[in-house]
Structures are given as structure tokens and as C-alpha cells.
Amino acid sequence: MKSISVSGNISISYQDVGNKNNPAIILIMGLGAQMTLWPDALFYGLVDQGFRVVRFDNRDAGLSTHLEQYGRPSLFKSWLSARLPLRSQAPYTLEEMAEDTLALMKALKIKKAHLVGASMGGMIAQLIAAKQKKKVLSLTSIMSSSSSLKLTHANLKVFLQLAKLRPDKPNRDAAVRYNIRLNQLIGSPAYPQDEQTLKAQAVETVERAYNPHAFQRQFAAMAASGSRQELMTKVKAPTLVIHGESDPIIPSQEGIKTAQQIRKSKLKIVPGMGHNLPPELAPKMIKWIAKHVRKSELKRAKKLAQKGQKRDWGSAPI
Prior knowledge:
Layout: E1 2-5, E2 11-17, E3 24-28, H1 40-48, E4 52-56, H2 75-81, H3 94-107, E5 113-118, H4 120-131, E6 136-142, H5 153-165, H6 172-186, H7 195-208, H8 214-225, E7 239-244, H9 252-261, E8 266-270, H10 282-315
Parallel strand pairs: 3-4, 3-5, 5-6, 6-7, 7-8
Antiparallel strand pairs: 1-2, 2-4
GO molecular function: hydrolase activity
Protein name: Alpha/beta hydrolase
Organism: Pseudoalteromonas obscura
């Protein structure tokens, strides 16, 4: 893992694998999650498909900068502020997190990239695709939404259960237990993981980095950023939307809605998939994303060839 400064006080930890001349895929992770939640099978599988693949820790996650000076925003107030005219001040926004991604691309000398975002990472990728069109070759939005934060019966139940378990103070054992229960609650019903496997993953995650309040700051950023639905009509990059049919956090209807809002986007609803990336689905994910990226590259190559032909024709003697 390497790290690079993307602004005055933000350092981003990242992993960059694959031939630098190959098409670049940027993986953007979700709320409170470290880049290691992208399954190695998926990450290296895309590299094996002939891509340069970058995954990274968002600010306030993993080994990137933790913004402790902003304290511990209330989850309830953050959610409520997204629905009231009088909004609470968030430590930062999804737009600023999108700028982190763009700054990382610039530092790595990646002018244009294929963006793949999961959950909150999908929201960040959507913002970049809508506002920085020239930098995005394709968009893949996984288990994400273009809407503002919504409470449903399913996700409210999950949030209330997790609230009882979330440790207030640094406590390794409590953090491991919380991580295990989190993955049990949001995981894919068709691809369950046994508790021993979940414990090993939880220990690895907590030992790599642990900050009990960073999740709340990222949640506040999501709430402050509101809806992106009007922006979706501005997305011109070829788009693939992937969503689990059994997602308890962001209902599959949100994925369907996002696909409807983006012109000519492709939609894949995955039976039995929850709000996670089970390793068993890695082969399918690799196949879908690789096919989507290659089609986008082919479309780009044809456009460049057409532009070249027009230039040659325009400069020909009459």
C-alpha cells in the first residue's frame, strides 16, 4: 500500500496494480469501509483481465487521513438535516470526497478512468461522472442510489440493531463483534459466510485501522449532499448499474431508478445479493465490469477514429 497527499491536510492510501498503459479502473468504496472490502478476487481478477486497477481508502477510512478534529456528528441529526430546510453543518461533503478521487487520479497521472463505485462510492462516482464528464470513460454504480438518504422499514431495523452494538470508545473486541454483526445483517442471503470467516475478516479490518467516529462523519457527508437525481441526466459515460435484489440498506428499487435516470444505462439485478460484495459473485462481477469497460473503450476508439477522419478530410486539398 502507498499513500499520497491530495490536498493540504488529506493523505490517501491506495493500491495501484497493472500495466500503467492499460485502461484504468478506479474502485471507490462505500460508507465507513476500507478499500480492502473490495474482494481480492475481484481486484486482481480485473487486473488479470488486462486493466490497471486502483483501489483506495476514502478520507476518514482505513489508512487515509482521519479527520478527528471534526468530532462525532449525530447520526440522527445528520439524517434529519437532509429533510429539513435548516441543515446542520457537515464536516465535509461527498463533493469534497469526489475531489479526493480526482486528485488521486491526477497524482497517478490518470487523465481518464472507468469508475466503479459501491454504495456511497457509487454516489461519489455518480457525482464525478455528472460534473467531470471528460475524466470518466464509463461508470459502474453498485448497490447505490441517486436519491437523498431514505429510511425504510428494512434499513431502519438494521440501523437500530447496529446502534446498540456500536462501541463508543476504542475497544478492539467490541469493534470485532460489531463488524461481525454488521456483515451478518447486511450480507447476501444467497451467499452467507460462516462466523469463523466473518471473525477473521473483522479482526483483519480492525487491526488494519479502527476509528469509531469516522463512520459518522462520512454519514453526515452523505446527508449533506442530498439528491443527485437531476444530475443523472447529465451523465454521458456508458453506465452499468448493479444491485442486489435482497439489499436491506438501499432497496433494489433505487438501483432501478438510477438506471432509468441515466440514458442508455444497463441494469443487472442480482438475486440473493445483499449490501455486500460476496467473493462468490466475483467471477460474475469481473465478467460484467470487464465487458462494460471494453465496450466503452471500443466506443471511444471509434469516436477518436471518426474525429481523425474528419480532420484528415478537412485538411485535404480541394
